[in-house]
Amino acid sequence: AFDARAGAMAGKTFGPATPYAVARVFGGPVSWTLGGDDVSGGDAHHYTVGAGASLRIARRVNLAAEGMALGERSATVSAALAL
Q1: Number of H helices and number of E strands within the chain?
Q2: Distance CA 73, CA 48 (A)
Q3: Is 90 exceeded by the pLDDT of residue 83?
């Protein structure tokens, strides 16, 4: 599969927390093999819009959550450790 994406985020940091709004657009052909046949298709939506927040819980540790409610719907939770 090939996918090209572009996005924009806007947020504000309040102490250890950073809430933000996000919008992304994307597209590209998707190809796979189904029952031995080559198949291609595309996305039902070519955009996603939502919000998220990042929380610094220690000097080197961040937690984040993001929910995309419009277009391609998804939810993501992550943790990061700065080395």
Answers
A1: 0, 7
A2: 7
A3: yes
Report yes or no on whether pTM surpasses 0.90: no
Greatest alpha-carbon pair distance for the chain in Å reads 54
Q: Can you name the residues that pair with 27 across neighbouring β-strands?
A: 4
Question: Is the distance from CB of 10 to CB of 20 less than 8 angstroms?
Answer: yes
Predicted pLDDT at 2: 65
* Rounded distance between C-alpha atoms, residue 57 and residue 30, angstroms: 38
Residues 6+ apart with CB under 8 A from 2: 28, 29, 30
pLDDT tens for residues 28-70?
A: 777 778 888 888 777 778 899 999 999 999 999 999 999 999 9
Q: How far apart are CA 83 and CA 81, in angstroms?
A: 6
Amino acid in position 32: W
3 in helix, strand or coil? coil
CA distance from start to end of the chain? 32
